[in-house]
Automatic annotation (TrEMBL):
Compositionally skewed regions (Low complexity) per UniProt: 1-16
Stated name of the protein: Anti-anti-sigma regulatory factor (Antagonist of anti-sigma factor)
Domain spans labelled STAS: 66-153
InterPro entries, per the entry: MlaB-like_STAS, STAS_dom, STAS_dom_sf
Taxonomic lineage from the root: Bacteria, Bacillati, Actinomycetota, Actinomycetes, Kitasatosporales
PROSITE patterns: STAS
């Protein structure tokens, strides 16, 4: 009696060994699952700090005006930010302080709005950013606000 051809071939089904192609397929499938798990784990998670932005002028005078920020400044808040930045109380002040101690995030669009407002002010007017956290300061530096304003740490 002859043994079936499959049983005599190394790596054949039922022999306990795997064919080279099968191992590669399993590795690719396993690698795909692993990559998928990493992609899911690296997605940003919502934080408790993420909240609607508030922009309020807390102090206004000829000499000094303070605009306080809180929450997240992103594209959704851009219109409100631009309106606040052209408020006559800010435009008439010799010194404007941007109080950012409660600001969680600022996106590039809002940071560029700040630089447009800063470069539109008279050179004798002072602009100071106070209380911004490291990530907010990094964004402000990226758009060049540090060239026209004092950014306090």
């Amino acid at each position: 009696m002859r043994a079936p051809a499959d049983a005599a071939r190394p790596g054949a089904a039922g022999s306990g060994e795997r064919l080279e192609g099968e191992e590669e397929n399993e590795r690719a499938t396993t690698a795909g699952r692993h990559t998928e798990e990493v992609a899911v784990a690296s997605e940003p998670q919502p934080t408790a700090r993420a909240r609607r932005p508030t922009l309020s002028i807390t102090e206004a005078g000829r000499r000094r005006a303070v605009l306080a920020f809180s929450g997240r400044l992103d594209a959704g808040a851009l219109g409100e930010l631009e309106e606040r930045l052209v408020d006559p109380r800010l435009l008439d002040a010799q010194e404007v302080v941007l109080e950012m101690g409660d600001l969680d995030h600022i996106d590039l669009a809002c940071a560029y709005a700040l630089i447009r407002a800063a470069t539109g002010r008279p050179q004798s007017a002072a602009l100071t950013v106070r209380g911004a956290d490291r990530t907010v300061r990094r964004t402000l530096h990226a758009v060049g606000l540090d060239a026209v304003a004092v950014i306090e740490e």
